[in-house]
Amino acid sequence: MTFRRYLVLGVITITASCGDTFLSRGMKSLGPVSLAHPTALIHAIFSPWVASGIVLLIGFFASYLTALSWADLTYVLPASSLGYVIMTLLARFWLHEKVSPLRWLGVVFITAGVGFVTRGPSYTDHGSHTAPVRAEGLATVEPAIEEVRQ
Q: Is 142 domain-assigned?
């Protein structure tokens, strides 16, 4: 694993946990919102905390796609679950939520699990299957497309 790949995993971890925390902060300041009232949902989306959370979660999604392009899901998902630890810490010390001892124990297990995952390989080598696979029906469609173009 290169420094860049660790950086991508770090971005995934930070953007997911901060994005979710920002969403929580924003929605708590707005109060209850129902699907029966779409205008309230639209208003919520444009509030500063919620909008910032959405932007961070878009960054998370882009980084997550990047990581999945070079590593297995069974590596990326557990490695990025360190975000749950950060989210718990943010919820406790920034949002002032109560975190039970059982949840703290869960945080310890997550941290231990991340340690186990990072020791293994990040990618399963499937050989050199780089040749594109051609669909059988595509061969009959291509001549018809060429006739339409002419």
A: no
**In terms of residue numbers, what domain contains 115?**
3-123
Angle at 71 between CA 66 and CA 74, to 5 degrees: 115
Q: Which amino acid is at 99?
A: V
Q: What is the pLDDT of residue 131?
A: 46
d(CA 90, CA 107): 13
Alpha helices in the chain (DSSP H): 3-30, 38-45, 48-70, 73-80, 82-93, 101-119, 138-149
For residues 67 and 64, give the distance between their C-alpha atoms in angstroms, rounded to a whole number. 5
On whether residue 128 sits in a domain, the answer given is no
> pLDDT tens across 11-28, in order?
999 999 999 999 999 999
pTM for this prediction = 0.75
